[in-house]
Task: structure prediction
Amino acid sequence: MSNIPVELKYAKSHEWARHNDDGTVTVGISDNAQDQLGDMVYVELPEAGQTVTAAEACAVVESVKAASDVYTPVSGEVVEVNEALSDAPEKVNQDAYGDGWLFRVQPSDASELDALMNGDAYAEFLAAEAH
Amino acid sequence: MTHKTPLYDEHIADGGKIVDFAGWDMPINYGSQIEEHNHVRTDAGMFDVSHMTVVDLTGERTREYLRYLLANNVDRLRESGKALYSCMLNEQGGVIDDLIVYYFRDDFFRMVVNAGTRARDLAWLEQQSVDFSVTVTERPELAMIAVQGPKARARTLPLLRESVREAAAALKPFYGVFDGEWFIARTGYTGEDGFEIILPAEEAAEFWVRLRAAGVHPTGLGARDTLRLEAGMNLYGSDMDENVSPLESALAWTVAWEPAERDFIGRKALERQRAEGAGRKLVGLVLEDRGVLRNHQLVKTGSGEGEITSGSFSPTLQRAIAFARVPQDTGDHCQVDVRGRLLNARVVKPPFVRNGKARIEL
Result:
């Protein structure tokens, strides 16, 4: 059974978003997504300062098996990326919601988060996808 | 409707992730492909290869038949149990399949061919057998387990019947020995020492469980692919097929030109290609920039374009590696189009890894 923290929001493309107290949004891929992709070997992240648009690809996670685009769930400016993944992409497998975060965005429109699924809805979405 | 091997229930019990491979439900991994890969390089892993096709060839003229059928020469096989790797070609010199053939007696050889080419191989074997009155018998009632790694033989030998243990321990590389319906061969597809064991399907699950109890880890098709790629071994359907010859597939070493009077299917086409020079060759690549090489990526060289036929991340080298088919006069460097970016790669001669050790400079 996948780990799906209830305090996060989820996109249909399997990213999670955490709305931080300072207004920024941290983005990663879900535990289900990392499990499907398998062992990560390379992560390509956006640049800090880069402007990103919701639902557009701005990062790539590559496992031994395949490369997969990561779509930002919110528009805005990238304020920080997880540099540690450059040498340790396996953190995405080990701790998808913690040390395996990908990038942090200063959202231009935080209401975009409302369009995402909550944990229960994402669990249902995964169950439906599996059938 | 997919096929299941006699070990399917074991794969489920071991937590295997099942994928469709050539019409078979096979485990891609049992959790972590990289851990499985590393365990084979350092200890011992086991693979269910029961999907592969075992074919027995019998009849007085079997040697003569194989001499004509295969690009490698079965006359290299004189000791019972000896194995030979060969391509089976069409008249155009294209590769119908690559296979291992074992010699037992002049009227009895055994062949192991790929699962994905099974129907076509069997039809070809049958068609060619007519002139030689050879009987082609598929053995679907047999399973096959490969145990590979530096500790594979030590962990496996105590589990074999006492009647064969000594003979199995004494096997030289590329030899096999029968024990009733069991056949134990010192062959593999990982670049490590080990055994490939052909055994009755109904005995396979019990043997798998005993191997696991002896410390041999179940290893999926994912790791099988990265292990063979590191070992510099071709995969049929990716690195070669009916449209390319062994000369364009880094398999010229498997073509027995001598004796010149031996006729084999595809010989004339290969000789023409050898005289004119094959336009392309299969080489190894090591990515120098960061990223991952994948099948079908475009390769740019000073002599023209090529294509990656097998690309992945090498867990042993911690770098992206690949096989690529490139123009014959390609030099030491090339670039690969990786998701729209041109990355630098070095051209090398595989294997990348053998017996746990890097064989190329990084």
About this structure: Chain A touches chain B at residues 38-39, 41-42, 44, 60, 62, 64-67, 86, 93 (CB under 8 Å).
